[in-house]
tryptophan--tRNA ligase (Daphoenositta chrysoptera), 135 residues
Amino acid sequence: TMPKEPAVLRQNILDATAAILACGIDPKKCLLFRQSLVPEHAELAWILGCLTNVPRLLRLPQWKMKRASQNSEGTVGLLTYPVLQAADILLYKSTRVPVGEDQVLHLELAQDIAQHFNKKYGEFFPVPKAILSKL
């Protein structure tokens, strides 16, 4: 949600990919792709954003904390990032999502959005469940 220099962003993508592969992920057994090259993520985020009310997003603690660190000038990208996360999860009809405790509320938002969408348009998205990581 913070602007990055294009060259730094490209290098960060390569570094993250190298780190994932270094962890032992076998690209012959899994799909590894750059999310920004899949337009359906942003398209679904737009649709889900039209179903999500602003007061709900303003109550998320991550918004409050990051906005405070940005001198009360939080961006729209920061506010709507949890909706993009919900789109990332729901696009693939995920049923289980590994999350840390700091992301539980964002997953709950994804669950609420899925339930709201299903109630309005018929059963389409499974309601994802959290798999809490233990560090």
